[in-house]
Design goal:
single chain; 216 residues; TIM Barrel
Length: 216
């Protein structure tokens, strides 16, 4: 499973890059707002330090506007993926941009039927929002499972990009249920490292190395 990082913060992306932890980046208007800089400049900067795909979301909600904005975003760098909402207009824009060879990420997916429509429209990625489904007391992970079955049943090329990941368990279960990619906030990604027995074991080794006066 690939890891994308869900942030528009270039410092966080650089830090994760030094550990070789990420295969791409996803952003959305809320993350751009948090970063507090010019949208297209942020995307250009992220693309420069990211080898894999970088999702940048349109702000128009009509078909023509999304197509025009998608083409502008795609020109920023060759690894830009145009993020489109899962609406009728979004699917039409997805089909048009796909026909022009532009990669797409259809976002705000909350049902298997929505995902099926995005796959039929030729989406490169479909983004089911796991955490937000859990928020309304429904099982977000079941959606990953259903999408995996549907995409495999019909050999669609669309990749499942598990989004709205909030916990290490979401990451583990997305991998178990066969998501192609998980887009993960930096804190959760670093949190995957944590295990109390690793901390305890390392403390003991450090203490014993001192006691044994080991020098290298
Ligand atoms: O990738 C989508 C993600 O940013 C949404 O996450 O936590 O706002 O539901 P969240």
């Amino acid at each position: 499973m690939k890891f994308f990082v869900d942030t528009a913060d270039i410092g966080e992306i650089n830090e994760l890059n030094t550990a070789g932890l990420i295969d791409g980046v996803t952003t959305n208007p809320s993350l751009i707002k948090k970063a507090g800089r010019d949208f297209k400049e942020i995307i250009a900067d992220i693309c420069k330090v990211t080898e894999g795909d970088v999702s940048a979301e349109v702000i128009a909600i009509d078909q023509q506007g999304m197509i025009e904005q998608g083409k502008i975003l795609a020109k920023i760098a060759s690894n830009v993926v145009v993020k489109l909402p899962l609406t009728g207009d979004g699917l039409k824009a997805c089909r048009a941009l796909t026909a022009e060879g532009i990669k797409t990420n259809v976002t705000l997916c909350f049902s298997a039927n929505q995902g099926l429509l995005a796959a039929k429209a030729g989406a490169t990625y479909i983004s089911p929002f796991i955490g937000r489904i859990d928020d309304i007391h429904t099982d977000g992970m079941e959606l990953i499972h259903h999408l995996r079955v549907i995409i495999d049943n019909y050999d669609f090329k669309t990749q499942i990009l598990a989004a709205s990941i909030r916990t290490p368990l979401h990451v583990r279960d997305s991998a178990i249920f066969g998501a192609d990619v998980a887009t993960v906030p930096p804190a959760v990604l670093w949190g995957l490292l944590n295990h109390p027995l690793t901390t305890k074991g390392l403390d003991q080794f450090v203490e014993d190395a001192k006691a044994a006066d080991i020098k290298i």
